[in-house]
Amino acid sequence: MTALDRIRNVAIVAHIDHGKSTLADRLIELCGGLDRREMRGQVLDAMDIERERGITIKAQTARLDYVAEDGRTYLVNVIDTPGHVDFTYEVSRSLRACEGALLIVDATQGVEAQTVANAWLAVEADLEILPVINKIDLAAADAGKTRADIEEAVGIAASDAIGVSAKTGENMPAVLRAIVAGLPPPRSAGGDAPLKALLVDSRYDPYLGVVILARVIDGRLRKGQRVRMMGTGAAREIDRVGVMTPKPAPVDALGPGEIGFFTAAIKDIAECRVGDTITDDRAPAAEALPGFEPSVPVVFCGLYPADAADYNDLRDSLGKLRLNDASFHFEPETSAALGLGFRCGFLGLLHLEIVQERLEREFGLDLIATAPGVVYRVTRGDGETFELHNPADLPDPVLIGQVEEPWIRATIVAPDGRLGAVLRLCTDKRGEQVQLTYVGGRAMAVYRLPLAEVVFDFHDRLKSATRGYASFDYRLDGYRAGDLVRMDILVNGEAVDGLSAIVERSLAEGRGRAVCEKLKDAIPRQLFKVPIQAAIGGRIVARETIPALRKDVLAKCYGGDVSRKRKLLDRQKRGKKRMRRFGNVEIPQDAFLAALKLGD
Amino acid sequence: MTDAGPGFGVYVHWPFCRSRCPYCDFNSHVREAVDEAAWRGALVRETAHMAAVAPGRPVASVYFGGGTPSLMAPATVAAVLDAVARGWTVADDAEVTLEANPSSAEAGRFAGYRAAGVNRLSLGVQALDDGALRALGRRHDAAGARAALGLARRAFPRVSFDLIYARMGQTPAAWERELSEALDFGTGHLSLYQLAIEPGTRFHVLARRGALDLPAEDGQAAMYELTQALTEAAGLPAYEVSSHARPGFESRHNLTYWRSGEWVGVGPGAHGRLNRAGGVSVQRRQERAPETWLAAVSRRGHGGAAAETVAGGDRIAEVLMMGLRLKDGLGGADLARACGPGWEARIDAAGLDVLAAEGFLERLGDGGLRATARGWPVLNAVLARLLA
Predict the structure, then answer these.
(1) Hey, are the CB atoms on A551 and B265 less than 8 Å from each other?
(2) Is A581 strand, coil or helix?
(3) What CATH number does the domain containing B321 carry?
């Protein structure tokens, strides 16, 4: 066991692309955790998608032996935290495994929305924060302005923030010196106290079962010990304990203040929820660590195979993804327009994108995703409350007491000149201003917004309002009741499942018009004119009409053409299999995709 | 046992043109020189071969198509017609059509064609406007077309000509003037085609690039409706989607196609059809490339490239696709003979009900079927709905 005063646990937090993972690599290299040959870009991002998109999805750790200038060896645990809004809960749990955080800020970009959001999370977790200004080797770097930015926007002292270049290694030893000198060691009731460890992260390994990343607070975690997850109640015997150097290395036990992994032949990742407290099953701790709440999906969408024959493949692939991702949910769903598929739940839009991308890339599936929606909380007149994942399941209005929707607290950093457009957008989206401050030449707006409005088309509109020069971050901010109604889209008088949406009453008409217009453009002319309507209950709020087909006949068809022209007909006939019938018209499935994607 | 049904025809393909038109996707080729004696011999040989393949049928029509068959010497036409007469019994009133371009050189041969036995001339006029003719890549002008029409009417008992409408930049008003002039010529037959952009043509490339200013669907429909009204008023109503005739002047040869009758095809890329009882048809296709075809005929007496049996749903689709192009549709007996018994069970019954109820199709008293004036202009969509 390492003495507590020789341990430093430090999280690295930053805005996307500010160099977090490169900086972690450099620390590992300086401490000899991996030699040059073993180093490849961003060691701690294990998945291809993480490396490619420059984001960290699962928390990664490295345990480093740092020989300080006083000749003493310190054990430095570095946690590279998930760096995106969707994983805020995971970030906050990773932070609770540490006593300090390195806040990395790009000297060419300054403070961005995620910088602020993550820094605040670290402050809330009571962490000592060491600001580090990265990319000082670049010509556009402005370390002085960046220091001022940090002080203004985040509100922490930054005058002695260390300037480094993680890429060139410039001044990196100063970061290690500051970690030892400036961050506090862990506190603990000691190695003999009942085991209390924080479940920081978990991932599924096909050979070992679930591998759990844990931070020991009190007591010891050792091979052969029977442990219990206090939240889920699952109890298992540990068969392997180790640390990441960052290569996995076995150890006999983990003591107070240490971070490492263990396995216990666990097959179901749902038993191992991030934030849970691990204790000894026979000598349990009196109470769990505070703040455990399993993360639940807030964004839902339907995923359908583009080719119906791939349905079973999709089901198997979703099952495999779920093995490694307890926060991802799926259940079978049938759509008349799209066939058999799954309603899937995600932590947020990025999580959705990542899952979709993994399905397409790793499992080779061609997918149709319906427009994402949020989880509503519906209270019936009789007082019963349930969560609504699919707008089509909303009961008749007379049976509803109230409908609540998730709200977020959003931080937006944008150039001054674009502030007006940002504020207008937030107002359009039913936003409530919380705070407005100026940081250098930029403005930082904090708003409360309904999540549904953000998943609809907020990102696109923010991007165009600011020409891409805005950063955006959010965290969930509870549920609130709203004047919410279900809007159905009727084609030829019949509601199209998958196009129904829950909308705020005052926005319904505009939304309905947009969907109707999009469908009008997407649906080819039919033998009959086809009305397209948006309706709330029985009331039509928007209407378009696709005029009937007027001219579609071969000009010439003679003896030499018969088979060739018939084969053209055959293609149309085959297309019939992907048609959805509405009364007396048949509409190709593809036509609905454009409307389903509205808001992308 | 063969069943000739609605008649038997001989189609002869002359694959050469002086130049390729940018809208044409027929089997046409431009060659510096053609050894016409060799070609004459080959066409005659293949005609004799076809007579052995499809013996015993009385020939109701012969059709020289292309390419540009009016580039053939009248003697070549005469030699082929002689071969037809040797191979089969030719009806006294057989229709013998030749497609011709309205250039002065070709008009000079009209008398020779008539002497060879051609009794119906189909002129590829395409437009009565010099600018439009240039845009369509035609080598003649409007004055030449008018002159050729005059000569043709004096030389042949029956004359037809083609026009293309819904051309680039064309308005309904301009088409109305052009069609009125065309009707004033007083021919018994007119083929009025909406410009179709076919894959593999220069227009297809241009259209994809957005470089062709084609009328939109509503404009096309307006010109189609105008066409129906004007031709009806002039006594040449449509008897097929694009074919208009004074009663009795319909193309008998083409009716054989639309009624799913039988024909043989002679020449490069020509197709033939011979039917068997029970809704089975055998399609024969000749080698497409002129030189390949010529070599094959000299080696083995025919240029056959493939024979394919068409039956079941495919046959029903073909029969309906062709037959619903006719104003009269197909009678119940014709349908049963061409499609085989039980064909009704193989189409989309619910689709037929909807199409009939909405007035796109009409069920005939004898179990036949016809497309209505409402169904005709959208026949592709009607067929897609009808075919299961």
Answers:
(1) no
(2) strand
(3) 1.10.10.920
